[in-house]
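Hey, I'm writing a tutorial for new members on how sequence and structure tokens pair up, and I'd like a real worked example in the thread rather than a made-up one. If someone can provide the structure for the chain below, I'll link this post from the tutorial.
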Amino acid sequence: MTLFELTPQPRSSWERVAGVDEVGRGALFGPVVAAAVLLTPEQEQQLQEIGVKDSKQLGANQRQALNEEIRAIALDVQVAQATVAEIDQFNILNASLLAMKRAVLALTPSPDGCLVDGNRAIPELPLPQETRVGGDRQEIAIAAASIVAKVWRDAAIVDLASDYPHYDLTANKGYGTAKHRQALEEFGRSPQHRRSFAPCRTVRDASQRQLQFPDEPH
């Protein structure tokens, strides 16, 4: 599908633009999370002035403070996820796009168009969209979404850490650090580990090693 087919109206004509980004694609544990942030051009300028930029260029305290500012300034902010089961069923790319679609469709009012981080358009989205490789460094709306998604997912993983204490989740947020991989080998995988990911495919379920965890994710 060509860019013209995706965006019959140019981005410059959009009065309400949604920035869309995801976080958690490379993690071994937990959902992939997407955020959509709906902004007017004036609100984009406001966010730029207060220092919104790619979440990877910010510390945790900066992200938290900016997350609150973004939510106060934006027309709307929505967060959605694709579960571990969906990641394993559809693969991580399709699950990420599914989470993005859910976040965008939840926005009120509906955006005039979407700026999507990456090189893949969101399938079956009934809205104009443009993709941006490295968009979180180019577009304020995408950068804002990157911050919201990161803060939300980090908090969600920390909340799960007490249920899954063996994997050092508070420190690694579900990513495959050496300590996390060592725990997988020692204790096996939990119900929130992505079985389709290589480090998780080759280990047994933790339940086979008499560890007690909450129910399987739906």
